[in-house]
Amino acid sequence: MSAHGFLAGLPLVLGGNVFGWTAKGDQGLAVLDAFYEAGGRMIDTADVYSAWIDGHEGGESEKFLGQWLSSRGVRKDMRIHTKTGMLSSKPPSDPGSMGDPDLYRPEEVLAHLDASLERLQTDYVDLYYAHRDFEEMEVGQIVDAFEGAVATGKVRALGASNFDAERLGAALAYAETNGKTPFTALQNQYNLVSRGSYGDDLQELCTSRGIAMLPFYGLAAGYLTGKYRKPEDFEDGARVYRTKDYAESGPPVLSVMDAISAETGASLAAIALAWLVRQPGIPAPIASARNAEQLDQLLEFTSLELSDEQVSRLTQSLDDTSGK
């Protein structure tokens, strides 16, 4: 798939945000077992998952994954990606404001790394992300803090999440000038109905520097599965507050997806993910599954070949690519 050591197996990163939350117990274990048996080898999580839920404090996903890795004895086969920078003791006003700059002090990065490793029941992670940018910080401070994590031998590679082109470019320049470990992965939101966080400038930066873009919300929080179409569809569910964001711009996209589904027999979820891996710099999308049926839809995309004409129609289905 790539020279990057944090990439392996199927071109799909299993999103770990649901584990210990909406996918737990035997149901969650069954998803992980099926993913592994199908050839999936990459899992994405974060220390903050799922602190936004009442009664949760963060670390639930990592702990669940650690129990699975240990009980199955598959750690050496897997590529585990986790993140830090949002799990703060300060209560957030909303999920988008989670975290604070103090989390990127060198000692805090190391402390949170060790806590993640303990929950994951491993002594290293394959990819460690700065989960968000704090633009009030000098970007070199962030690079230096994560360099300390690499120096421990507990981190194989570094990634940036929710960074724009200017800040990511500055981080790369600082690392190069000062002999630090560069970010070699990017994780931003990007999908058929929300494209603004991976525009032309970031695409050019990633492709020219060999950075692997691993987009989150590849299915737009479930919207691109086609399950949210009528007003009543948005009345309940764990992610409805997010899917509503796509209700205005999404219908033309779903219409094109419906047509391609009729042509190929593929599910809408498979079509959405197949489009992503045809975009510049994207070796694999991140997508989550709460049960075996949802996982089957994700895995379907790995054998789906969209034609150039179908990819073009999907790309053109959203006239406004500002990321609304």
Automatic annotation (TrEMBL):
One GO cellular component term noted in the UniProt record for this chain: cytosol
SUPFAM superfamilies in the record: NAD(P)-linked oxidoreductase (SSF51430)
Pfam families: Aldo_ket_red
Coiled-coil blocks: none
The NADP-dependent oxidoreductase domain, residue ranges: 11-317
PANTHER family hit by this protein: NADH-SPECIFIC METHYLGLYOXAL REDUCTASE-RELATED, OXIDOREDUCTASE-RELATED
Protein name in UniProt: Aldo/keto reductase
Originating organism: Aurantiacibacter zhengii
